[in-house]
Design a protein that fits this description.
Helix content: over 70%
Largest sheet: none
Number of helices: 6
Distance between the termini: 17 Å
Shape: globular
Structural class: mainly alpha
Order of helices and strands: HHHHHH
Number of strands: 0
Oligomer: single chain
Number of domains: 1
């Protein structure tokens, strides 16, 4: 079943989160896994650019299918950062732990959403 506006909403969500990587980078820096080479800020900016690129691709009908595929890969690729956040927040306040732990299963509907946009986009 095709849901009107689903691609537009996905592109908007990606644009907002991508922009936040540049406006408020510190929270994103803190969840970059330590074993990645380079500075956390570089990874924050790179992932922000990836989200903005995916947003643009999903928003454009001609590139929507490829953009949705890239978005699916991006959602899977950032999962280790969500795991790191959940581990780091084990001893934080209940509210912060809730946010950190909620991000883990949230990846599933995000991936399903991007796959749905891909599936509903003509070849």
């Amino acid at each position: 079943m095709k849901r009107p506006g689903s691609a537009t909403l996905l592109a908007g969500a990606l644009a907002i989160t991508g922009t936040l990587h540049f406006l408020l980078p510190r929270p994103f820096d803190s969840i970059v896994p330590r074993r990645l080479p380079g500075s956390p800020r570089t990874w924050t900016y790179a992932s922000g650019m990836a989200e903005l690129g995916c947003a643009a691709a999903v928003a454009t009908p001609r590139t929507r299918r490829a953009g949705a595929t890239a978005t699916t890969a991006l959602f899977a690729a950032v999962f280790p950062a969500n795991v790191k956040m959940a581990l780091d927040y084990r001893h934080r306040s209940r509210a912060l732990r809730f946010v950190a732990y909620a991000r883990l299963p949230l990846q599933i509907p995000l991936i399903r959403w991007s796959l749905g946009v891909r599936r509903n986009t003509a070849r």
